[in-house]
């Protein structure tokens, strides 16, 4: 590969990772093509185009040294915080929530981009914090501020799924950085005590319905439980090998709502069966293993924490979406990476990939592919 025939910059690209991402994305495009009744529009064509652009962006990001991203962490965090304020003022309203800024060619969701920004900001903080002060209050309040400000702004949009994801990414980094276990036990106990208050006074009525539906989806199968019921039917009807490409019924007959976004896995499972589902899961396993390998082999604390946090952010997308479509978690509007149609979520995931690639390229952090 590194002979004179192929230029060194091209030969040096992480081709196994790129092939994996392309495989997941093009398989997702097949699912979206089928969901549209055998048409590239309106989803499959845009899906591939966006991925191509964002993959090029990730490769460009990987060329910048880790020191550059450390310098840019808080300026980017600040810009995104301002964008969240702009969303509250003039943001586009869709599905009952005010989350987007309409750029014309796409609707940008700043809260999505805040997920990797919070991970990078918390990693930056712990990189500068002396290890001897990890048990002090000085290691708590800055992290609470970094996570809490965007969490509040996203929660009032309202966007429960994204707000939880922001907290999850930041807390994972804090845990890996060495926060004492008592912090998490205490926070968990406080959260459990506040759940009734949050349910009755903080959640919107439609969010309360989602929680109630999760606890008893069969109580209203034609109303609030319709999404989950149809999702389970689609997944179960696929069997071992599926009904066949373009032969799904739940999505083609419009029984399955949001079959191209939140419930794209259900659309896929109906046509490709358990075999297709396991193939997708194996692809995600390889991606997550690569990210964790980069984290473990990084020689810088910032690189270790950032790569692990970014990998866990991608994991959050995967885990919550799959639990959601199988009725094991409330419906919170989290798309499935590389399969779901959506620009902001794909942009966020590819930013995570680009940053991890940059950490991998940093001196002494080569992970050796997927192994």
* Overall tally of domains: 1
Total beta-strand segments: 3
Order of helices and strands: HHHHEEEHHHHHHHHH
Q: List the uncertain runs.
A: 365-371
Kindly report the average pLDDT value: 85
Share of helical residues: 55-70%
The main sheet orders its strands as 1-2-3
Q: What structural category do the secondary elements indicate?
A: mainly alpha
Largest sheet: 3 strands, antiparallel
- Number of helical stretches of at least 4 residues: 13
Regarding quaternary structure, what we see is single chain
Query: What best-fitting shape do the alpha-carbon axes yield?
Result: globular
Describe the structure.
The chain has helices spanning 8-11, 15-35, 44-62, 66-90, 110-128, 141-155, 160-177, 181-202, 205-215, 226-237, 264-297, 301-325, 343-361; strands at 92-94, 97-102, 107-108. The chain has one domain. Helix 5 (110-128) runs antiparallel to helix 6 (141-155) and helix 5 packs parallel to helix 7 (160-177). It has a three-stranded antiparallel beta sheet with strand order 1-2-3, covered by helices on one side. It has 13 helices and three strands; from the N terminus they run ααααβββααααααααα. Mean pLDDT is 85; it is low at 365-371. 66% of the residues lie in helices and 3% in strands. A hairpin with a 2-residue loop joins strand 1 and strand 2 (97-102). It is mostly helical. The protein starts with 7 loop residues before the first helix and ends in a 10-residue tail after the last helix.
